[in-house]
Amino acid sequence: MEFNQLEGQPAESLPTEPGKASEESKRLFIKQEKTDKPYWYVVYTYSGYENKVMTNLLKTVKNNGLQDLIYDVKVPMEETIEVKNGKKKHVQRKLFPGYVMVKMLLTDESWYVVRNTRGVTGFVGPGSKPIPLSDMEVRSMGVEDVPVRLDVEVGENVMITSGPLESFIGVVDEVNTERQKVKVTVSMFGRDTKVELDFVQVKRV
Predict the structure, then answer these.
(1) Distance between CA atoms of 71 and 194, rounded to whole angstroms?
(2) pTM exceeding the 0.85 threshold for the entire prediction
(3) Which of 69, 102, 105, 135 ranks highest by number of CB atoms within 10 Å?
(4) Cβ-based neighbour number of residue 192 at 10 Å
(5) Are 121 and 11 in contact (CB under 8 A)?
């Protein structure tokens, strides 16, 4: 799923009470199949309701003991510098206005709780079927630092996929899973050059 394809959905009336099911959500409710592990999902919210949705959802999880279903809720932020009246000021800015990220096991109950949180207008996905983010999307969106699985061993060839040496083929000298780094020897202009790269910068060939 490409995040840049996300589009807002038509607004609906806010529930009169937090957690109270709207008629539309009841009509759209489709039985969800429980996933084998928690995944990150993207939720549409009304503009300006992102932090309220996060706070209300975390409160609902705590009050109802749903920690084994809904693991985390985030509104990805970034720090930027604004210049006002000639003075620099560090401010927090939402990376994806109108969206909240929820890490959860997908079940009827977790879907229902999230969908009927005040300010939520739906999940990203076809109809009422949420689509989980891939590990790559989770990392690139700054939601969570998910470790990269690199299935290579010392002596094997890899292709460099990003950086100054993109498209070069090299031989793996060392794999450091804890640091998510790999050392590779690349032949450049007839000379061997050793470089250290992140797991995300190489792929097996």
Answers:
(1) 41
(2) no
(3) 102
(4) 10
(5) yes
